[in-house]
Amino acid sequence: MTTHKNVSDLAVNVLQKIKSSKHISVLTGAGVSAESGVPTFRGEEGLWNNYRAEELATPQAFERDPNLVWRWYDWRRTLLAPLKPNAGHYALSQMENFYDNFTLITQNVDGLHRMAGSKNLVELHGNIWLMRCTAEGTVMENKNTPLVAMPPKCNECGGLLRPHIVWFGESLDEDILTRAFRSAEQCDLFFVIGTSGVVQPAASLASIAKQNGAMVIEINLEPTPISDVADATLLGPSAKVLPGLLNAMQKD
Ligand code: OAD
């Protein structure tokens, strides 16, 4: 594990690789949105009424008490509604123009990458602004905050709606998973940014990229289990490190 505080400290071969790579894959987690004001999951401020995400983001919790789960999502949606992408989100959307083949895989459900202009985006865990009918499976956008009816019901059939989010114990959408794995397998450079690297299958993507010959670069405030796999870890806030990286890429 090699850690650095500044982009300028990266080894010459790493900078060269960043500039010359053709196929880039990026995995982001809650840390990338922290500077927009979104609480991370495993930080203290991620708690709600003393519940941890793992206790509420499950099909069992929803079956037991849909109101409680929806109240948590209503709190999170209301908190997210006024927030804007930060310099890290924008740097990533600009990087997309720099490379021939660029895939941004995010575990975040906040929609901020899309708002920043990222296009080839894989939302692994869904999107908090989408709801799905538990009766018919229809997916619809709903941006009301706070929610008008609790729990929300489908306008078409009256069925109970749920967040269009992958919960603990649920499988990820197969097409989405295939896109994420394919991109990790085929890339020559893999960035992993602002994730604690403890939730699968996202956490394994860096190892898959590495096994297939990619250079892995991590950006985080602190070392994580992924740091052992990474060729370099840049320690710092992503809203500062990513614009620095973009700057370095654009230099001759
Ligand atoms: P975590 O909250 O587990 O981890 C956030 C990571 O971001 C930590 O490693 C922090 O050190 C780092 N971090 C915090 N602020 C940062 C900053 N400004 N710049 C860079 N890094 C920073 O969030 P995730 O790893 O995204 O799943 O969590 C993964 C999944 O677990 C989430 O998608 C969610 C959760 O339960 C579902 O909801 C299905």
Automatic annotation (TrEMBL):
Asked whether the keyword Amino-acid biosynthesis is assigned, the reply is: no
Keyword Transferase found: yes
SUPFAM superfamilies from the entry? DHS-like NAD/FAD-binding domain
What keywords is this UniProt entry annotated with? NAD, Transferase
Give residue ranges for domain Deacetylase sirtuin-type.
1-252
Q: What would be an example GO MF term here?
A: protein-malonyllysine demalonylase activity
PANTHER family from the xrefs? Answer: NAD-DEPENDENT PROTEIN DEACYLASE (PTHR11085:SF4), NAD-DEPENDENT PROTEIN DEACYLASE SIRTUIN-5, MITOCHONDRIAL-RELATED (PTHR11085)
Q: This protein is called what?
A: NAD-dependent protein deacetylase of SIR2 family
Could you tell me which species this protein originates from? hydrothermal vent metagenome
